[in-house]
Design brief:
mainly beta; 5 strands; 5-stranded antiparallel beta sheet
Length: 87
């Protein structure tokens, strides 16, 4: 399997901010890496008592937290070019 194929099929943990919690709360979710800083959140049910800042299926831009271990979704990737990662 090529590196491009591996990166598009492997799941990684990305943290998604929960809304309406009164404090910062982050949910670890599975996501498929599409590019260096672009991931697609895997399809999974959102618990009824949670409101996620990004939904399953959303393509998001991530950044690494200062701890060097956590990757968090920071924005929806609205202007992506499908051809740049689907090869």
């Amino acid at each position: 399997m090529s590196a491009a194929t591996a990166s598009s099929t492997e799941l990684a943990t990305v943290f998604v901010r929960l809304l309406d919690e009164g404090t910062d709360v982050w949910r670890p979710v599975q996501a498929r890496r599409l590019g260096e800083t672009t991931y697609q959140i895997a399809d999974a049910p959102v618990p009824e008592d949670e409101a996620w800042s990004f939904q399953p299926g959303d393509i998001v831009v991530v950044e690494q937290r200062p701890d060097g271990q956590s990757v968090v979704a920071v924005a929806r990737a609205m202007d992506f070019d499908e051809r740049s990662w689907a090869s």
